[in-house]
Amino acid sequence: MGTTRRQFIGQTAGLGVLLGAGIPLLGACGGDDDEGGAVTDAIKDGLEPEAGPLRIFNYADYVNPDTVASFEEQYGVKVEITTFDVDAEAITKLANGSVEIDVHNSAAPNSLNRLIAGGILQPLNKSYLTNFDNLLPSFVDPWYDKGSKYTVPYTVFSSGIAYRNDRVDPAQVEEMGWDILWDPTYKGVTSILDDYREGISLALLRAGITDVNTTDKAQIEQAGADLSELVKTMNIKVNIEAYKDIPEGATDLAHTWSGDMLAGVWYMPEGTDASVLGWWYPSDGVGVVNNDCMTITANAKNPVLGHLWINHLLDTANAEENFGWNGYLPPIKGLDADYLIANEYAPENLRSAVLTNEIIDKGLRFEPLPVDADRLWEETWSKFTAG
Amino acid sequence: MKRGRFGALAIITWLYVLWSLVPVLIAVRISFNSGKSRSAFQSMSMRWYWEDPSSVWRSDELQTALTNTLKLAGLTMLIATPLGVAMAIGLQRWRGKMSRGANNLMLLPLVTPEIVVGVSLFLVFTQIYTSVPRGFTTQLLGHVTFTISYVVIIVRGRLLSIGIHFEEAARDLGATRIQAMRLVLLPQLGPAIFASLMVVFATSVDDFVISSFLSTGSSTETVPIKIYSTARAAATPNVNALATVMLLITLAAVMVAWLAMRLLRRGGVDSDASLTSMSI
Amino acid sequence: MAAPGTLWLVALFVVPSYAILAVAFGDIDPILRTAAPHWNPVSWDFTAMRGVLDRVFFGDLRHVFVRTGLFALASLAGCCLIGYPVAYYVARSARRSRGALLALLVLPFWISYLMRMLAWVNLLQTDGYVNRVLGWTHLGSGSRNWLDGDWPTVVFGLIYGYIPFFILPLYAALERLDGRLIEASRDLGASKIWTFIRVTLPLSIPGLMAASVIIVLPMCGDYYTNTYLTGGSPRTEMVGNQIEFFLRGSSQPQTGAALVIILMIFLMVLMAYYLVTIARSQREGARA
Q1: Which residue, among A70, A98, A103, would best test binding to B if mutated, counting the most B CBs under 10 Å from its CB?
Q2: Please, which residues bridge with residue B29 across strands?
């Protein structure tokens, strides 16, 4: 499979050049599979679900086991979840055919074009997605997949600052914004996300640069230098553990995902109330917003079941149940801050961590970077983490 | 030797044993946490053993991981040990440049960082040896590859201390080469073989990097993979419960093996030499 | 009889090692940006390697290599200080109790390494048991943040993780050591310490070297001990972390593979030194 894929990509090298130049190709690669790279034919309408097991590719602990169990019960099949740690790892394994998967449950929008052009995903047949209309309007025709041909969003989250309001004054966080992560008063108790796009964007935003997809060498390098400063002045930690470090008090201020803080409520030690958790996101709405996408692989053995799975998670009650477990917000109508707080899924003090339509629409998105710029981002990150 | 002579050494040794065991006890204790946290202990509960939907008892995934790990370690043990024993005997008797080459080659996997072995095996299985069924088979091949050397080293140490005289005596008394090996050499290698089995099993059970590179999906995930996957939305003490269950199973297996050894043991072979022979 | 094992290692160790070269000097897939190895050396491209060499010898990665080496050396020193007495004690203790002692030494192996590291994170937290014990005994302030990304914690973790692999081979070497030599030395009037320095220690050098090689080389490729014990502080970044980032999570696997090659060359030099020393001591041993 690996070899065939490579040969096949050789034939479509022209496509790669275009992608390398950062020209969005989505929707432009119609036509015959054998030439175009992308798979363009969805499954037929009205097929019977397969016998399973349905094989799902996902981050670890990213879906409620109860939600999985109810799907298994409803369709009388087994669900097997395979986990990956980082997006690049998922792409490598899918590309090499070293994992056998029906549903890639958490594809990142900024690498979707690669998965589609590489012929790894198949288009969706909406006739199976009877709950599609439950999606928030912003996600019906998203920028990264016009017409929702290949994807349905799974969760949406913003990147902001999580903090302990009993140790850091909320007014201070509000006033300083991103700068607070550079304030030596908080040396030794801060962390930032271990993700090169997130980390460098943090430094860009702090410097007032809102192009989080910049290819400008000077800007990227300056962002890297700003991050490196954190090593000395702040003794910064680089990880994705804020979901527990903030509730447990090991860290007071963390650059992290909104979903982590909502999940963090479940990690409060006994005797500490979740009301000590705080969340900051730029009040002008200019921050990073991202989402994960559910997709079906081109070589899925259970494509019908895959569609049913996606539809299962588009169901409002299931989405609510899933959110209650993992803290990451499904972009489904009705699951807004008022509702979630009233039903005790989230505490009032984390209201701002539940994304509003306005925040979603205003949010800056990570787009695919051209190959050279991507390398520059990676190298800059590697220089920062090298200490 | 007088007892007092070892006073200071004894204290250091016992402190060391304590030091090495404390984290094990902590990890076991966390498995009884009633909360979701793997560090903040709330109260005693069996939640992660059988109450929670993701507990060891109720999660098929964790049980698959457990059986995979044990199956993988068991088979690795059964393949790597005979290969390694044969290689050790062969290397001891084989002289010349080629032998030295094989000898140095054998040492390399011991000192190669696991991530390097993992990546290179992943590439080879996906691009060169494509006819090998991926998943369990490739994981098994990978585990055998990085454990053979331990066996060779352990067995060779023992071989050196046994010497060749017994076998020569047997040959003089009319035994064939194979008889001499089977009746004289192998029984004497007993403790070293036992030690090899243990070390191979332990190394395989603990491996995360290679298993994860060669895993093809949830049906081929192992316990260490489960433990390591603390991704975005966090792991719970269910993995501690899983590790505890595995610890108990392993301990039970070792006890059974040890008792069996004692029962089967014939005069002259002391079992406490089991790890005696580990050296380069 | 060595043939099956040797063939196995050639097929599954030597050939895969070549794959690392093919990646380092290869290309990336134009669309997916995953590794596209060049198996034929004729088409090898050395750009990535040159870039990495430049960073290793003249740039930011030099610190990472130096730091990794220092961590490994410090850990080795710690292992010698703790591991030698333990191995010596077990080797010289009565045969009856030795089995039980050895079993205790191997016991931590039975629970996952990662699990034990997580337990240490737990113990070393600001309000963890380590600080509580230090507070009660007044040995320390009891409020130190051990997980703050300082190097001693990482070295501590490395010692903890690797020391069993150090003790076992050393024990085997000491166990085979002829007790009569030590007694002879004592009978001839040498003090305990003098006997140790002049007799025991020199005789155990080969075992000590073997034990050191077994732990130091893999330590240089470690990437999870420091991640766990410092919450990911760039101040304790090791070569393994950089390799992991580039090989697993980036669009330039060549850089990762090039780093692997450079690391392996350093390790091979250490290994060669060890082999030469051992060969020399064996020759001397044969002459004596």
Answers
A1: A98
A2: none
Question: A161 Cβ partners below 8 Å, 6+ apart?
Answer: A173, A178, A180, A181, A253, A254, A255, A256, A279, A280, A281
C-alpha distance from residue C67 to each of A239, C9, C64, C72, C213 (Å): 20, 32, 5, 9, 18
Residue C154's domain spans which residues? 60-249
CA–CA distance from B41 to each of A163, B44, C114 (Å)? 22, 8, 19
- Asked if pLDDT for residue A12 goes beyond 50, the answer is no
Query: Nearest Cβ partner of B42 from A1, A60, A270?
Result: A270
The pLDDT confidence band at residue B234, using thresholds 50, 70 and 90, is: low
Place of tokens 């796009």: A197
Parts of chain A belonging to CATH 3.40.190.10: 2-156+291-337, 157-288+364-385
Q: Is the pLDDT of residue A312 over 50?
A: yes
Domain total of chain C: 1
Give domain A2-156+291-337's CATH architecture.
3-Layer(aba) Sandwich (3.40)
**H-state helical runs in C59-150:** 61-92, 95-106, 113-124, 129-137
Q: What is the pLDDT of residues B102-118, one digit of tens each?
A: 888 888 888 787 888 88
Closest approach of A386 to chain C, Cα-based (Å)? 6
Q: Are A378 and C29 a contacting pair at CB < 8 A?
A: no
How sure is the predictor about A95, in pLDDT bands with cuts at 50, 70 and 90?
Answer: confident
Bridge pairing between strands A289-297 and A253-257: unpaired
For A60, which of B122, B126, B235 is closest by C-beta distance? B235
- Global pTM reads 0.86
Per the listing, tokens 């390697």 go with C49
∠ Cα A308 A311 A313 (to 5°): 115
Mutate which of A59, A61, A92 to disrupt the B interface (most B C-beta within 10 Å)? A61
Judge contact between C44 and C261, C-beta under 8 A.
Answer: no
Buried b (16+ CB within 10 A) or exposed e, C197-209: eebbeebbebbbb
Tell me the residues of chain A between 40 and 69 that have a Cβ less than 8 Å away from chain B: 55, 59-62, 65-66, 69
Beta-carbon contacts of A358 under 8 Å, excluding residues fewer than 6 positions away, are A285
Nearest-by-CA chain A residue for B134: A98
Q: How confident is the model at residue A200 (pLDDT cuts 50, 70, 90)?
A: very high
As beta bridge partners, residue A290 has A157
Which chain B residues have a beta carbon less than 8 Å from that of C8? 83, 144-145, 148
H or E element, residue A238: strand A237-239
Residue range A157-288+364-385, CATH number = 3.40.190.10
Q: What is the identity of the amino acid at B146?
A: F
Indicate the pLDDT class of residue C139, thresholds 50, 70 and 90. Answer: confident
Residue B266, pLDDT above cutoff 70: no
Between CA B148 and CA B154 the distance in angstroms is 10
Sign of CA pseudo-dihedral A374, A376, A377, A378:
positive
Please give the CATH superfamily to which domain B63-214+249-275 belongs. Answer: MetI-like (1.10.3720.10)
Among B171, B186, B118, B155, residue whose Cα is nearest residue B273: B155
Q: Which letter does DSSP use for residue C135 in this model? A: H
pLDDT(B272) > 70:
no
Does the ipTM surpass 0.95? no
The neighbouring-strand residues paired with A103 are A56, A296
Alpha helices in chain B (DSSP H): 7-30, 60-93, 97-111, 114-127, 136-162, 165-172, 177-179, 186-206, 209-214, 223-228, 238-264
pLDDT digits (tens, 9 = 90+) for B120-157: 898 888 888 888 888 899 999 999 998 998 888 878 77
What's the average model confidence in pLDDT over A363-369?
94
Closest-CA residue of A relative to C68 is: A386
Alpha carbon distance B213, B117 (integer Å): 10
